[in-house]
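Q: My labmate handed me this sequence with no annotations at all. I'd like to see what the chain might look like in three dimensions before we decide whether it's worth expressing. Could you predict it?
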Amino acid sequence: MQELQRIDVATFKQSEKLPLVVILDNVRSMNNVGSVFRTCDAFRIAHVYLCGITAQPPHKEIEKTALGATESVDWSYVASTASLVKELIMNNYQVYAVEQVKNSIPLTDFTSDFSQKTALIFGNEVMGVEQDVIDLCNGCIEIPQLGTKHSLNISVSAGIVLWHLFYSFTKK
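A: Here is what I predict for the chain of 172 residues:
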């Protein structure tokens, strides 16, 4: 780790974080949960919320892809994604679902100056983010796609969106 210039968990916990939280809305795959944790570690995301049926650490299937990131990234479980979104909005968060819907904002056009705290919601592998949750959000962000499938694995989507916001934030 020293040769790679990686910080330890204690240093990570004390480090400044990107003013961004990630919400996983009913994500079924524990491998996806672990991968999102690892991505959140990579970009120093402030917090991960696990909602609904989303599995929680400790679990060997999560750790298989998290590789210890469940220890570095702060997280909590909330049963209802909708109630969490309402609470975050009351606490001055701007909340966006990553979802393909009418009037969604292409990721390439989305910018956040992070003067207001931001929350991103990533949804279930089949059903996406629940409609009642989308209705509460400030908007939806869509990853432009040119292929035939027009869908990405949730952990891939998280990686793309979080990299975009991390890059936007750090290049200022």
